[in-house]
Amino acid sequence: MTENALSVGFIGSGMMASALMSGLVEKKIVSGPSAITCSDVWQPSLDMAKEKGFNATKSNGDVIGASKDAVIIAVKPFVVAEVCQDIAKVNSDAVIISIAAGVTLDFLQSKLPGRRVVRVMPNTPCLVGEAASGFALGNGCTDDDRKVVESIFGSVGVAKEISEVLLNAVTGLSGSGPAYVYQFIEALADGGVRSGLPRAAALELAAQTVKGAAEMVLQTGTHPGQLKDNVTSPGGTTIAGIEALERGGFRAATIGAVVAATKRSMQLGGISEEEIRYKHNL
């Protein structure tokens, strides 16, 4: 792998793939749009890709042949087996990266024997360059493969290597987490409206407050509990609000949401209730 000169292919050119392609160009992980080849069965997706300067084709085989470093499977889970058949027909040393939800490394390796495969769980903030992605390397993957994955998904946010068994927890936390945050933003805005603020102003202030608080955690590295204490004066407004959240079970409900989503991800992946209880205590 040559730094900042990756050759990457995408099988599937939907919103997530399109965001990744744009991120690779913007962060100069590839030399330019011409270093990316993508395929799709839907002509409008190919037309949009061509308008951005990407190589677009309906042939999955052409994508694999043109992509030296990585091929990303960005299709619905039920299509992955068919896509793997196309990949297996073309000799390539590119690492195969799947972002298809619930498709395991064992499944990918069974369909692509001898190929190096990686499973990634990104989330929808990828569309605005702020993804939180977890990834697991398959058998035979190299340190260069790890760097390729980190470069690709780091171009649209943060990418953390996680053992595959914990990718369900990644799904429950960062995969489903944006929905929890959207609800929190909506509730903050509703509280502002209840207190007299105009709806538009309340929503903008709520969203910016969440964004700013998240940046404080990420940029300072300070524990969120300490940051909370820093703005909580004795007998002040913030502690009154925190007390109301505690009475409403805010933290317990949030923890419960992550655990419930993690458990559901396991169920969708074919893990039985008994195995979930035995191995994961959920």
UniProtKB/TrEMBL annotation:
EC number, as in UniProt: 1.5.1.2
Residue sites binding NADPH per the record: 60
Gene Ontology molecular function, alphabetical: pyrroline-5-carboxylate reductase activity
Residues in Pyrroline-5-carboxylate reductase catalytic N-terminal domain copies: 8-102
Residues annotated as signal peptide: none
Binding residues annotated for NADP(+), in chain numbering: 11-16, 39, 74-77
Record keywords: Amino-acid biosynthesis, Cytoplasm, NADP, Oxidoreductase, Proline biosynthesis
Cellular compartment(s): Cytoplasm
Group of enzyme by EC: oxidoreductase
Pathway: Amino-acid biosynthesis; L-proline biosynthesis; L-proline from L-glutamate 5-semialdehyde: step 1/1
InterPro entries assigned: 6-PGluconate_DH-like_C_sf, NAD(P)-bd_dom_sf, P5C_Rdtase_cat_N, P5CR-like_CS, P5CR_dimer, Pyrroline-COOH_reductase
Family: Belongs to the pyrroline-5-carboxylate reductase family.
Record-given protein name: Pyrroline-5-carboxylate reductase
Native source species: Cylindrotheca closterium
Upper classification of the organism: Eukaryota, Sar, Stramenopiles, Ochrophyta, Bacillariophyta
